[in-house]
Amino acid sequence: MKPKGNRIVIAVIFLIATLGSVAASAQEANDEQLLRVRETVWRTWFAGDTKTLEKLVPPETIVISAGEEKWKNQADVLRDAVEFHAKGGKLVRLEFPRTEVQHFGNVAITYSRYLYEIDQGGKRSVTSGRVIEIFVLRDRQWTNPGWHTDEEK
């Protein structure tokens, strides 16, 4: 191959590698935003912040929770958050020790392990388990229209 041809091949390889790196970097930034929204949903639920929850948990939400027969919707999520907070419940600790994310266009699915500690009337309890959450990117904002939790015993 001629020296000029080598330079072209090297330039093309560099361009491909750079574009791949830019795409990966954009995906990492997108995942950081997604995971911040996920944590905001959890924290605002425990805080009883229905104004923020209404923005992030849309009306068409479906929630399947461990040990509960009834599936829930946005109204149930908001009511439960208000009740938890009104009874003096407080979040002490929230952790997601493992999370994996899959993307399908404007939809992302997270698979996580979670652990939270709450204080209710001076009594602390720790809950841990797994959660699958669905996120949809709408107008450059992630929303959380569904999740399924299970608890570890």
Describe the structure.
By secondary structure, the protein is α+β, with helices and mostly antiparallel strands. It has one domain (3-151): Nuclear Transport Factor 2, Chain: A. It contains three helices and five strands. Strands 1-5-4-3-2 form a five-stranded mixed beta sheet.
Helix content bin: 40-55%
Total strand count, please? 5
Count helical runs: 3
Number of domains: 1
- Proportion of residues in β-strands: 35-45%
Largest sheet: 5 strands, mixed
Provide a concise account of the structure shown.
The chain is α+β, with helices and mostly antiparallel strands. It has helices at residues 3-47, 50-56, 74-86; strands at 62-64, 90-104, 107-120, 123-138, 141-151.
Helix-strand blueprint:
Layout: H1 3-47, H2 50-56, E1 62-64, H3 74-86, E2 90-104, E3 107-120, E4 123-138, E5 141-151
List keywords for this structure.
alpha+beta; five-stranded mixed sheet; 153 residues; 5 strands; Nuclear Transport Factor 2, Chain: A; single chain
